[in-house]
Amino acid sequence: MNWLDNGDVLAAIGEFLTEDIGRGDITTQATVAPDVRGMGRFLAKEYLVICGLEVAEAVFLHLDAEIPEIETSYVEGDEVEEGTVFATLKGYADVLLTGERVALNILQRMCGVATLTRQYVKAVEGTKAQIVDTRKTTPGLRLLEKYAVTIGGGKNHRMGLDDGVLIKDNHITLAGGITEAVVAAKQKVGHLHKIEVEISNWAQLREAIEAGADIIMLDNQTPEEAAKLVGMSRDMNPSVMIEASGGMDLDRVRSYADAGVDLISVGRLTHSARAVDISFKIQMA
Question: What is the pTM assigned to this prediction?
């Protein structure tokens, strides 16, 4: 299914436009005749990974269902350099002006997430480690941001709380221990759900694996500590996946990949990605 077919995405676009337009774009209405045609050019003002053109197009379609498709010779995931005009859009000038800011806000955000993700993915090239995201997303934009992660070359972790079992320290405390939490989860969730447990030392690692955990999350370990725990886990059960998490700066993510982990979860892919600089210049058409 096309990810944009999700009704939540389309509904959100309408809400974003309502927030920005209010009772109407009074500047455009006062200065631009409704029959004027224009062409807008999407210009990359820095290196970026293209992501979200279909969403930008949907913004303008929301305002004018007859507007032509965005024209581009690029595809999602392509890298472009500063100064590249990577797409154009023709239509009524008032529609282009009114939808410009919302379209750019979303496009810049999605390109920013994809661009940062691509940097992390390149940093671990040649290892078996995969870069995955987290639930640390912008409320209302999770689907778009997680899509952008995949365009950047990363993988998605849980989409939401209903998407997988991740037993963390607070769950362990309230359940009475790691074994108790894992056993309870196995009794209550479906057979297709894997059980992941967050640990911080060797004793917890051993208990989680003996209890039947499928995935182990190493929380805030040094690369050296991670390597030791990976070795211990492989000795106990080679099929258990290992995820490293916590403070994954770009300059040290490679050291965790070299430690032998399977997954590296990076919250900053979505919670700290910078919106890249893109302009939308409109001229008479």
Answer: 0.95
